[in-house]
Amino acid sequence: MRHVPARTARYAALLAAALLAAPLSGCGSADPPSAAAPSTAAAQSLRIQDPWVKAADKGMTAAFGTLVNDSDADVTVVGATTDLAPMELHEMAMKDGKMVMRAKQGGLVVKARSTHKLEPGGDHLMLMGLKRPVAAGEQVSFTLTFAGGGTMAFTAVAKPYTGAGEDYAPGHGASPSPGGAAPSASGSAAAGSPAP
């Protein structure tokens, strides 16, 4: 029988304990919050009211609703995704005397303790090149991505909507409207209640 010196046994025990504890150290919450934490916390306070998407057979369409920020910090939406199509954040802007749709630079900022409407004729979530038709009554899943990290998933109901035609800014395709008929440039229909 071999005798193991006490010193060697202690080192072996300490080494074993350190190796077992190492994977668990990442599970604790004692680490200080990262610089993105305020943005992520604010993003968790964001919600959407009355989300809807324009029903469309092909081409492009758009999603709308009211973003509500219940936090004390501004939240910036920098992207959106769905399985139906590639997406862009869009805005309406005057160009050469008429309203055109274009990508929204810098994202959608929802001020602290405020709302930001996504509506026909204003800011909206654009679905570019539908992979399949979006039928009225269908539930469509979306995910918003925030500056500094964090995401928010929501479901929007597809609704029929007819509005005035709008032109795209250069570089945003030749189709004059999302899904066949663009949202009204006047924005007369309220988010969540499409015009007949």
TrEMBL record:
What single Pfam family name could you report for this chain, choosing any that match?
A: PCuAC
According to the record, the signal peptide region is 1-30
Q: Which superkingdom does the taxonomy of this entry point to?
A: Bacteria
Q: Where is this region: Disordered?
A: 165-196
Name the UniProt key words of this record, in alphabetical order.
Signal
Provide ranges: composition bias, Low complexity: 170-196
InterPro entries this protein is in?
LpqE-like, Lxx211020-like, PCuAC_sf
What protein am I looking at? Copper chaperone PCu(A)C
Q: In which organism is this protein found? A: Pilimelia terevasa
